[in-house]
Every structure is written in C-alpha cells, then in structure tokens.
Amino acid sequence: MEEVSGLELKDMAMTWLKQTQFPMVHVHSSYDENARTFTLFLRQEVQEGGKFWDFPFCAALVDSEGNDLAEVTEQMKGREKRIVITDVDRPAFSSLNRGYSFFGKVVHDVDIDELILQAKKDRDLINRFIAFYRIVDIEKMKLIEDKNRLPSKEFTDLYHELIQDNGLMEGAGAQFLTIFESVEDEKLAHQYQLLYEVKQKILKAIASRHEDSLMSLYRVYNEKENESENKDQDYLNEQVNKIKTRQVKNTSLSALSTLDTPAVHDIIREQFQTAQNATDKLSAFSYYLNSSAPDRIQLMQAFQKEAEKHPVSWEAFLRVIGSGSSNDVFDLVRQVESSGSFRIEQANDQRALYGSFAFNRKRSLQTEKGRELLGDIVLRLAEVNEYSTVGILNVLANIDRMEDEYHIPLVGMMVGFLNRLDKDHTPSVYNRIRKILLNTPKAVKSYEAVNGKINLSS
Fold it and tell me: Cα separation of 64 and 330, whole Å?
C-alpha cells in the first residue's frame, strides 16, 4: 500500500490495530464574508495516555438546495488541524466526515434549522441519517426535560416529509427513520421505561398529526408489495426492493398502531391474516399484542398453534411474546412457558422467550412482576444451561447507572440467587453474579445500608 500510494502508513496502521475506542473529533466552524473563506478547526479527543489517530477527513460545504459548493479531503494527524476553504459562498450547512471517511464520531454544534435542512438535502446518505438522528435526540431530550411538552410540529412534519420521500425510501429503506429507545446523555441511558414512553409519545404525535396521510401511504406500499413480479428486474434487486417496501409499510403501521383505535386494529388484524411473508405477519402480531384490541389473546393463541408446527416460526413467536410492552407481558410469558411446546432444554427456546424478556428491561428490571419473573427464569435456567443463563444475567450489569429506586430490589434479587444456587453445581452462573455485584458498588452500598453486609467471598 505504501509503495502504490507513496504514503507512510505504518504509524497510522499500528495505532488503529493496537488502540481501543475510536476517534472523537470536535469541530468548530466559521465563515468570513469579506474574504469568502470557510474555516474548520478540528480537535481530537483521546483517552488518557492514548495516541492521536491518523485518518482522512472529508468535508463538503452545501447550499440550501443540496448542491455542493466545495469538497475537500485532508489528513488529520495530531491533536488539532485547521482546514480553510477559499473562494466559497456561505454554505447552508457543512457535511462532515463525508462518506464516513473515517470510523469515528464528529461533534459539531449547529442549530436545529441547519440539521433539518441537512436531513432533507444532503446528498451524502450517512450524514443525512446522522443529522436526523441528532434531531431525534434533541427532540427526546426536550420531552424528558418537560414531561408536559408535546413533540414539536417541526419534527413530526420532518418525519412525515422523509417517509414520503420515495427516493430516500428506495435508497435507504425505512430503517433510516428508526427512533431508538436511547439518548446520547449517558445519565439517562438506563432509564428504560422513560425512553420507551418518550419514543411512543413521538410516534403517537406523528400518527395523530398525519393519520390520513400515513393510512394512504400504508395502502400504497401494501399494494406495491403485492404487485406481480417485474420481469425487467433481476430476482435479487426485486427482493431488495420488496424488503424496503415492507419496511416503509410497517414503519407507517408502527406509528399508526400507537393510536390504538378500532380502525387501526382492523388494519393490523387484516395484515396479520393475509401476510405472505414472516416480516409482515410478525410485525402485525407484535403491534396487535401490544394494543388494547379485545381479541388480542385469542389471536395470540391461534397463532401459537400455527407457530408450534415449525421451529423457526415458533422461535419468532416466542421472541415477540418476550419482548412485548403490554402490562400483561409477564402473564403471557408464563402462559407460553407452561405450554407443552416450550422446551426449556432447547437453546433456541431459551434465547427466544427468556432472553427477549430479560433484555426487555423496562419490564424485566423496572417492574416488581418483571423482577419476580426474571428471578424465576434465572433459577430455573441455571440448572439447564449455564451459558444461556450467564447471557441473561448481563442485563444486570448496569444497575449502578439506573435510578436509585431500583438499586435495592435488583441487588436483593441477585443476593437471592447466591443464597439459592450451589456454587459447585452452577459455578459459571454463581461467579457471574458475584462479579456483577463486585462491580456494582453504589447499588450494593444502598442495599447493605438497609439489609446488612453481603458475603461475596468465593
């Protein structure tokens, strides 16, 4: 590579091969009207004792119509770098780390209007998504700070505009519009119920303000998916397009499902009953199970009988049950695990039902019934498969970062495990619990202040 490029790459390669984490680049920008120059000031942030990364940094300046005014690529070495772009009009926004020119994160503070324009207009799909992701994070933080606040019309209109952008949906699919149950602020990262509620609040606002349009969009994409095969298109491209079509259809239905009305129930039920593929059927099943539809349990029981006939369908069914958000998810898990078809000795069944419920943290960790069920699962599964049980226990690794109210009950649950498990019979599970407790000093201290010292000797 050095011979062909004429560049010295050894030092750069050694840093990327030997150093953990990734570049974090803080960017400040300014424009000089008189000189017609745009300046980017880059500063690397590295862990203490770490080396500065060496990587290409690609940046473009873009006008309000999405046209590139200028694009440059320069090598970043050391702590700081200044990039000056001359003889250029003031840009509407800057598109940084174009094409994901390096694996890392760019921190560039810009106002919301600039981010919205970038999400709509940037020709670089990666930066377009990152702009949307940042807008969602800003919106979520506002809703968290003010619980009485409604999602902004500015945001819901942007979401609506993007999902109607045929070019974007054909190119990226509806995963572009994913709203994660997370925020950038680490202090809030483990408030699982809160983040779920914020996401649902956003989706419901989108559906409420654009219900008719989303209904029409759903029907258009539903018909498009069911169209006959295109003989002018090869099989692979046709299947890719159908996947993206399903994504848009089910993303629309996901938002509509938050309205939880009889009309929406009818649409979801119809999709479930007529689905020609697993994606449509499982999506509809999940939305229906989490709704208030009066026949949701009957539909679940009918689907269970159908799913029991095939191991892949059965695993998918179990995963939907365990990850449910309804208030009776605990009862549904217990009902399914007590059926003759659930086999605790099968790893697929363990992962699908127990694993999905365990990682459904808003229910498994943040409710009393959930903790009781999780406790039963761990104690039962430890006797059958230690590997699967240790994987489930990983949901307890961040107790210290959760709200204080959960510290004592969750530590208490783990102390109960230690008291009931035989360290010689289930050593991997026993020692994993010990390790989690040893790395959870804040929560353990709270527990011990009320219940006395925990014996964590091996």
Answer: 51
Alpha-carbon torsion (200, 201, 206, 210), positive or negative: positive
CA distance 373 to 381: 12
If you write DSSP's letter for every residue of 68-91 in order, what string do you get? Answer: EEEEEEEEE-SSEEEEEE-S-PPP
- Sequence-distant (≥ 6) Cβ neighbours of residue 34 within 8 angstroms: none
Distances (CA, A) of 252 to 234, 362, 416: 27, 24, 44
Q: What is the pLDDT of residue 227?
A: 75
Q: What confidence tens digit (pLDDT) does each residue in 381-432 have?
A: 999 999 999 999 999 999 999 999 999 999 999 999 999 999 999 999 999 9
SS (H, E, C) 286-327: HHHHCCCCCCHHHHHHHHHHHHCCCHHHHHHHHHHHHCCCCC
C-alpha 218/C-alpha 209 separation (Å) is 15
pLDDT digits (tens, 9 = 90+) for 296-324: 999 999 999 999 999 999 999 999 999 99
Give the separation between CA 104 and CA 45, rounded to whole angstroms.
Answer: 11
Q: What is the pLDDT of residues 103-160, one digit of tens each?
A: 999 999 999 999 999 999 999 999 999 999 999 999 999 999 999 999 999 999 999 9
Per-residue pLDDT at 47:
87
Average confidence (pLDDT) over 273-281: 95
Distance CA(367)–CA(355), nearest Å, equals 17
Local structure of 165: helix, strand or coil? coil
Residue 173: which region, alpha, beta or left (left: phi > 0; alpha: psi -120 to 50)?
Answer: left
Distance (Å, whole) CA 258 – CA 131: 25
Assess contact for 440 and 411: CB atoms under 8 A. yes
Residue whose structure tokens are 């539909």: 299
Query: CA 95 to CA 122: how far, in whole Å?
Result: 7
Question: ∠ at Cα 280 (162, 166), nearest 5°?
Answer: 25
Nearest-angstrom CA–CA distance, 205 and 31: 37
Q: How far is CA 176 from CA 62, 72, 172, 243, 408, in A?
A: 21, 26, 6, 14, 39
Q: Taking each helix axis from N to C terminus, what angle separates 192-209 and 211-225, rounded to the nearest 10 degrees? A: 90
Nearest 5°: CA angle at 368, between 367 and 374? Answer: 85
Q: What is the DSSP string of 14-78?
A: HHHHH--S--EEEEEEEEETTTTEEEEEEEEE--TTPPPP-EEEEEEEE-TTS-EEEEEEEEE-S
- Evaluate whether 350 touches 388 at the Cβ level (below 8 Å): yes
